[in-house]
Design goal:
Layout: E1 9-13, H1 18-29, E2 33-38, H2 45-48, E3 57-61, E4 76-79, H3 86-91, H4 93-114, E5 117-123, H5 150-168, E6 173-179, E7 182-183, H6 194-204, E8 208-211, E9 217-219, E10 221-222, H7 223-235, E11 244-246, E12 251-253, H8 254-265, E13 271-274, H9 289-295, H10 303-320
Parallel strand pairs: 1-2, 1-4, 2-3, 4-5, 5-6, 6-11, 7-10, 8-13
Antiparallel strand pairs: 9-12
Helix pairs in contact: 1-7, 4-5, 6-8, 6-10, 8-10
The structure holds nicotinamide-adenine-dinucleotide (NAD) and uridine-5'-diphosphate (UDP).
Protein name: SDR family oxidoreductase
InterPro entries: Epimerase_deHydtase (IPR001509), NAD(P)-bd_dom_sf (IPR036291), UXS-like (IPR044516)
Cofactor: NAD(+)
């Protein structure tokens, strides 16, 4: 079912980010050449530092909002370029929107010129604050187009539109994955997402911040499971021609996650409550039947096993970079 040709040249936009760097690792391990394109807005050179001496790896610093011309043939394009954490994508909301719309348009045209396969990293955020639960791909969503999350949600929805228009027109073999909350090593410790925040706070002995009551839910997927799903969708034949949810259906309240992190880190930190951000989705869980049927994919690591791999990475990283002292 997965026909992954050997020795391809694969462009990974956003390849210096959390998910992108794991994808670069996996593609190189399969024997492909990887061109990582990143503007380092939220990614880090440290994420791809170990690949610098790899003969199949090339790093290009560029913003996908600028038209990109590749000086060698490209077989596949993965578009992961976009900040993913709410504080980060809201820091420059116009640029976030442009990254998804103008940037995705640029990469689709690049893929068209090269006859390359294309995979767009979309998001469970296209379902907004969902009125259907769990979320199936045929649910159209409940998104506030004028709120602070819209730069991300609506940008990603527009990027999906571009992909399916290019596919319908026979111009690009485009595929769309809707990624649900994913965690693991190389998340930026200060990017503001829940898993990184809670682990960093617990390891540092700082209060764990829960926004709102903590009764809102999320479903957490370990990064290696996600990467396996991305590669499977890019290479499955025929192209399903529909978006595919990739996530772990295990659903937890934010309070349950905080308790689990306290238990697994052995931290004695207290929990404090902060205001719930505007438009924060109340619950989220993927229906992954389509991924099971079309890709033969399902996640392998339950949350406890993924956290057991993630917590030591953060602890090590935080030992190297202690918090700045207040003067
Ligand atoms: P991340 O912020 O760690 O990585 C994003 C990468 O894209 C960074 O390296 C950043 O510097 C780069 N980037 C951002 N804008 C760019 C631009 N205009 N030009 C070039 N590079 C740019 O986030 P992540 O968690 O690795 O997410 C990767 C992709 O997956 C994103 O598209 C995100 O929307 C999607 N996604 C992630 C999750 C998740 O839970 N991790 C959930 C849903 C969707
Ligand atoms: N959240 C929280 N404390 C934090 C960071 C996030 O309670 O320190 C909550 C946030 O309000 C949301 C959930 O955790 O309800 C997941 O937040 P995240 O930013 O990781 O992802 P998203 O909201 O995009 O799913």
């Amino acid at each position: 079912m997965h026909i992954s040709k050997p020795n391809m040249t694969i462009l990974v936009a956003g390849g210096a980010g959390f998910v992108g760097s794991h994808l670069c690792d996996a593609l190189l391990a399969q024997g492909h050449r990887v061109i990582c394109v990143d503007n380092f807005q939220t990614g880090s050179i440290a994420n791809v530092q170990p690949l610098h001496n790899h003969p199949g790896f090339r790093l290009i610093e560029a913003d996908i909002c600028d038209p990109f011309v590749a000086d060698e043939p490209i077989d596949q394009v993965y578009n992961l370029a976009c900040p993913a954490s709410p504080p980060q994508y809201q820091a420059d909301p116009m640029h976030t929107m442009m990254t998804s719309v103008v940037g995705t348009g640029n990469l689709l045209r690049l893929a068209e010129r090269h006859g390359a396969g294309f995979l767009q990293a979309s998001t469970s955020e296209v379902y907004g604050d969902p009125e259907e639960h769990p979320q199936r791909e045929d649910y159209w969503g409940h998104v506030n187009c004028t709120g602070p999350r819209a730069c991300y949600d609506e940008g990603k929805r527009a990027a999906e539109t571009l992909c399916f228009d290019m596919l319908r027109a026979g111009r690009v073999d485009a595929r769309v994955v809707r990624i649900f909350n994913t965690y693991g090593p190389r998340m930026s410790p200060n990017d503001g997402r829940i898993v990184s925040n809670l682990i960093v706070q617990a390891v540092r002995g700082q209060p764990l911040t829960i926004y709102g009551s903590g009764e809102q839910t999320r479903s957490f997927c370990y990064v290696s499971d996600l990467v396996a799903g991305l590669i499977a969708l890019m290479n499955v034949d025929p192209n399903p021609g529909l978006p595919v949810n990739i996530g772990n259906p295990g659903e937890f309240t934010i309070s349950e996650l905080a308790e689990l992190v306290l238990e697994m880190t052995g931290s004695r930190s207290k929990i404090v409550h902060r205001p719930l951000p505007e438009d924060d989705p109340q619950r989220r869980r993927p229906d992954i039947e389509r991924a099971r049927q079309v890709l033969g994919w399902e996640p392998r690591l339950p949350l406890t096993e993924g956290l057991a791999l993630t917590i030591p990475w953060f602890a090590e990283r935080l030992r190297e970079t202690p918090p700045a002292r207040r003067g």
